[in-house]
Amino acid sequence: MYIYPKKYDCIVIGGGHAGCEAALICARLKLNTLLITISVDTIGAMSCNPAIGGLAKGHLVKEVDIFGGEMARNIDETGLQFKILNKSKGPAVWSSRAQADMPAYRLRMKHTLEHQDYLDVKQANVEEIVIEDGKIKGVITHIGNEFLCDALIIATGTFLKGKIFIGLNEFHAGRAWEPPADKLSESLAKAGLVIGRLKTGTTPRLDGRTIDFDALEPQMGDDEPIPFSFKTKNFNPPNYPCYLTYTNTKTHEVIRENLDKSPLYSGMIHGIGTRYCPSIEDKVVKFPDRERHQIFLEPQDANSNEIYADGLNTSLDYEVQVKYLRTIKGLEKVEIIRPGYAIEYDFVNPIQLKHTLETKKIRGLFLAGQINGTSGYEEAAAQGMVAGINAAMYLLEKPPFILARDEAYTGVMIDDLVTKGVKEPYRIFTSRAEYRLLLREDNTHLRLAEKSYEYGLIDKVHYEEIQEHIKKVNEAINILKTTYAMPSIDFNKRLESINTKPIKTKVSLSKILARPEINYSLLQTIVPDLPLLNKIQMQQTEIEIKYEGYINLQKQQIEKFKKLESIVIPEDFDYDKVAGLSAEIRTRLKEIMPKTLGQAMRIPGMTPVAIQIISIFIHKKHVQSKPA
Amino acid sequence: MIDDGIIAAIASGYVESAIGIIRVSGKNSIELLKKIFYPKKNTFEPYKIYHGFLKDSNQKIVDEVLVSVFKSPHSYTGEDSFEINCHGGLLIMQNVLDLVLKNGARLALPGEFTKRAFLNDKIDLLQANAIVNLIKAKTQKALDIAFGQLLKKNTTIIEELREKIIFLMAENEVLIDHPDEDLSDVDLNKRLLILNEITKLIQKLLKFSEKGKYFFEGVNVAIIGKPNVGKSSLLNELTGHNRAIVTDIPGTTTDIVSETLNLNGIPIKILDTAGIRKHSNKIEYLGIKKSHEAIDEADIIIAVFDSSRILDKNDEDILNIIKNKKNVLIVLNKSDLKRKLLLPLNIDPIEISCTKKTGINTLKSRLYNMLIEDYNESEVVSLNTSQIIALKSALKHAKKIKKAYIDSLDPALISIDLQQLADYIEQIIGKIENEDILDNVFKNFCVGK
């Protein structure tokens, strides 16, 4: 065996969205890093939909951005269309989404990795991980080379024992026609990790020349696009259209008649699929009364005709795919370039991980992305970021980097993963975040700059820029709350001029801004000496004032949450010595080893009685250890 | 300490007895006591028993009680604490507890006093096991009492309530998390309809718990009428005892006499009141004042008239008192004598004669029917005070949500209101987890791609 002479601090296996972020962050923290991938040609590849962001996912992208990741910058540079979703609702749930130029995205990411100091990139198929004394030592590739490291991050996506299904055909592959990583999965099992199996699917890619776009509704991006990265200035992206079409009863008929040719309905697939991305056959079966389902036709690439049919994820037989596609308006003469398929793959149930994404069993081994049972590029990238930072902290012997549920969507996701485990591919939703009103996309970098700076993940210039922004918003809020308007004839005339009711008593400006019909710039027209703010600062000022009651309510809830989170369960806490716990709960607790009483409470199946009992024993221990 | 604050509970158990004990413990609990307790002197020394009155914020007397005060660390819990010995009626114990809760204490969790004792080193570590078992047992018992009837007989209401709240939460989340989807089936009217159904279910539970109250705590029935129409005789006839003084001197009953009667399983407390009339002496005046209070607190009123005499001013006063009340039975006593009384036409009286003992059974069955009107066994639930408070808060909150829907408030804010609604009644419908909402989203809405 050839042992490679250069010893790395950290090795990352996989060049997808998790692997790229993990490797970049480690290298940016000046640790000697190696990224190993099965194919350097697919670094940063988007295996499924050609979009970044969306509800809650947009939050994750911005969190990756503030902690030194690349995803936001990468999409800002290579996006084809940018849009804020939920614009008709309140700003708490606005979310950014961009259509991506897939090859451009991939190549820019590869270029970034190749130009990153402290980072090497190598093409190889890792087959074995090497462990010594419960610590990670290195990896062995398919041609018998050993690379040594002190920390290892595995981010292999759907490649572990990947198996693809198209109709009743099946073959081994990690993504489309790329080779899977079969032996690595066995090596992980040998190391003591429990492996499970999941399933996901993707949609057919169509030849744009054979689509009648004129018959369809175009969907444009925003006229004034907003970038993902707080670092992106002078943003001027293209605005390519997507197109909306619908399935119809005929489509559904074709699908229904051919369910026997579906690997899902014929029982060939054993992995558990996600309800969040149902296949078109699932939708037709589960909602038989629906007469149509939406399909978005999305560009994949500025330089090719390939079109992604969003909403048609399927594993039906090729023949059936051709048949039902051609029943759809605009697709009557469509040609398929690549068929849709289902993929089944191994994953590691994330209850075997700590909040740092390090495995509980093996020191220095971190897992990130789809291997942890998640789905989505953004979910993967956020985990890659956390695994990368924590591998670095581990190597530098510094305190771990943990985001709490009240700090970031990434924190919500990782706490869900390690506390509740995964039964079906996990996707982030805004509803998973308890404190949605505070964890907004617009204030992501404001909320997290302090922490990022503390861990050395943003530079001083950007940090100070953000602090300046925060100061301006706070000043404006303060002025609005402490400046009072008198019910003078003059002022009431001014109020009427902006179509709002006059005041009868002395009223603070914040009370006037809180009126639904008033915004900051309107108020500024009648109170000209209000501080000058940019668009985002105005918006944040408005949110803080208009939603004050609800925001305070959430802040109170956070206080309660923090109280329980502050009660630490000692790492050596022996659940076998705690009387009165049911066998099932005891097993769960020992498996998950919650760090705090708050986390213990979130374990599925936990009862209030069990929590009471645990809290008694924690307190008792605490009381005893105090000197008398 | 995680469970801070002052805790309180009925220590003697929630059963009718001679003396009820309300235990209160926690830092500053003595300050709480000073707000509600009026002894001869207001300085408390530990290990002494004080006599005095408990009064509410309107200075209304709640009960006459004995209070013992314990100072930290020499108390059961190791904290400042006190115990109130009050009269042992269920209603009185409940009122005393409510008074303590209103003044800053919260209801103790099962076993919480013992838990505090344990944490404050008042109990040996070896007893840990026993305490854990105790907490488990107590919790189980509390659950049995609280949910026993609910779960056995009213699962459908609880499930329906839970399901509908989850549906509204899920629907709101769909609006937020799936803005691209074709959501033609989400509309305001449907939401208002479901919210209305939720309100109705909560009201139903509250109504059932009122009925439950009849069975567990009993019903107050007040007998009223002008002097000397035979109220005390009626009391004696109803209960079969001979306790109220019966004379033919009007105004003999100057205090309230009460007797209990078991009417087909429903405990009934019958209050015989002083006759209500004008021009009376001072003692009688006090009696009449008490009668009015009894009328206000009664679940059912039996208004007695003398059928052998014509309607006079005093009778008219009685008619005025009961004019807008629905819970009234009108009785014409002395039906054995010649009838001279003419009542307004819309009144359907029950004719009785206490002397001849006729009509009493008719009265009893009319009374029973009134109590169990549209009653069936599955409609009786037993809710504790905090559950009732929670349901009432939920009702109030539902109104807020209705307004939010109508004003098309931001769904992100509505979600907070819906969560609050769920939190209020969590102890009745069970905790709603994010998974429950997501399950509902993907079951009821065709979303995701």
From TrEMBL, chain A:
Annotated NAD(+) binding sites: 273-287
One of the record's GO cellular component terms: cytosol
One Pfam entry name: SAM_GIDA_C
Cofactor(s) listed in the protein's UniProt record: FAD
Top-rank taxon: Bacteria
Keywords for this protein: Cytoplasm, FAD, Flavoprotein, NAD, tRNA processing
Primary location group: cytoplasm
GO molecular function annotations of the record: flavin adenine dinucleotide binding
Amino acids binding FAD: 14-19
Subcellular localization, as worded in the UniProt entry: Cytoplasm
Assembly mode: Homodimer. Heterotetramer of two MnmE and two MnmG subunits.
Family designation: Belongs to the MnmG family.
Function text: NAD-binding protein involved in the addition of a carboxymethylaminomethyl (cmnm) group at the wobble position (U34) of certain tRNAs, forming tRNA-cmnm(5)s(2)U34.
Cross-referenced PANTHER family: GLUCOSE INHIBITED DIVISION PROTEIN A, PROTEIN MTO1 HOMOLOG, MITOCHONDRIAL
Name of the protein described by the UniProt record: tRNA uridine 5-carboxymethylaminomethyl modification enzyme MnmG
Organism of provenance: Desulfurella multipotens
